[in-house]
Hints:
By secondary structure, the protein is mainly α. It has helices at residues 12-15, 21-26, 29-49, 51-66, 83-118, 120-144, 146-155, 165-179, 182-214, 218-237, 251-262, 285-300, 303-315, 319-362, 382-385, 409-428, 436-444, 451-462, 468-499, 506-523, and strands at residues 271-274, 280-283, 532-533. The two termini are 17 Å apart.
Amino acid sequence: MAHDNGSQPSTAEERTPLLPHDKLKKTGGNSILPLLLLSGFLISLTFGITQVPILYVFRVMTCDAYYEKHTPDPSAIDRCAKHEIEAGASRAFAVLSASTSIFGLVNLMVAGWTIKRLGVKRALIIQVFWPAVRVFFQIIGIMKGSNTGIAIVQASQILTVFGGPNGYVLCLNSFVADVVGHEARTGALGRLQGLMFIGAAIGFLIGGVVGDAFGVIEPFHMAFISFLVCCVYVALALPATAPPETRNDTPSRQVLGISRFFGPLRIFTPQKWVLPDGRTTTQFGALTLGIGVFLGILATGYITILLQQYATSRFHFGTKDNGYLIFIYFSLRGAFLSLLFPRIIARGRKWLKSRVAKQQDKSQNDESQDNEPLISDQPIAPNEVEVMDPMENEEPPNPAPQDEQETFAFDLFYARFSVLLDAILTGAAMFVTQGWQMYIVALILPFSAGTGAASKGTILQMLPSSDRTDALSGITLVENIARLSTTAVFGLVFSALANVGKSHLVFICNASVALLAFIILCLSRFPPQGSKRAEHV
């Protein structure tokens, strides 16, 4: 990788702590961390309770609306097992997901603004309270049923602006980052990520079992009460936090607040580099990495909903069956990201680093290089790697001390082939012919996780240290946009295929997007060694 010696140091503003975390650490960061981990587990569990039943709810309400104008077949085993109903339910859910995509992005800005104005604890309470209000209106919509109920449930998503899953994850990440020191921060965020996955998995299971045993509306009652309990827990268990010190900003400075949300995307613009031989070239490594990550998350982010929709449509899975299915997927994914993935990354980095060291020893006196290398030996400090948002994707713990050099070349390699493995496994799912085989799919798909996490280490090497804060923000923003968009995009695809009785082809569509992501990631590479940025020459 090219070394950029002209990088400017980070501004004071970039290094200003969000909260007075020194005071929090003095009160005992180690004692606060378990409380935060438990908060992440409980809140994720609560959000997961309604995720499985809501798919079944839309199917039931669409079915009711359909038979308001049609006569049911008395000999049908499942009167809702019609292509028109499945397609209609998928369209209705796609509208729900599209609104969640828009409101979820706004929720990130609202949550960030609330943290700065009110402090992270109050912001977290707000992010948990408003989902309780949203679930309350969803209960009303389910009781109404038919098209009216669908409209009420869809309209309730506007409350996601004030509180939702994106906002609470941001609050918890900020809280953990403030109470934990630099050395342990990445590991703490990893533990939080793992517990969130496990909590969500248990929530999926509880929602499916309760909905199947006591009625599809009961998981929503349970979630409503659980959200309120979580609010009380956060208010009583977590320490009070003060908002960060504010200054009298000028109007022009305040306008920059909104532009900063999309501002980090500038890191993906092509950049000019001067090669060792004096030639100037345009490098597209960051751009192709961003596009590849977007497509990769777009493909993998839909898997959980796709498994449920396909299992319900093809094999008539109920809420309990889908609950078990998603519990398997999420629990294994959480275990993989928390336990196996960090070890794979650590050993892969060590292996590649030793390999590169041997190659550099052999070619130490060679000044001409014919091929452009794909790997880097630029050191990255652990405290720079740790400034991140581990939403759905988390960087593995970095065990190296701060002054130890470490290569992240393996991250790019892992990002490429995890997407390729996901494309293969997802495409193979179209050959599923029996219901029990869906559980096999849920067992093997989690082992292709980690694309977004691996991309973070890569983007950090492609940019100077002065841009690394924006690098992490930019790649996280790309992941969030892709994750929030995937259900809307593939929901419409599933609806169109289900309408013609070819719903199994959605796995091919999903795998094709993942394969395209792999191809684009293969085009991503570092500038040639010895190159310098044009603006620093």
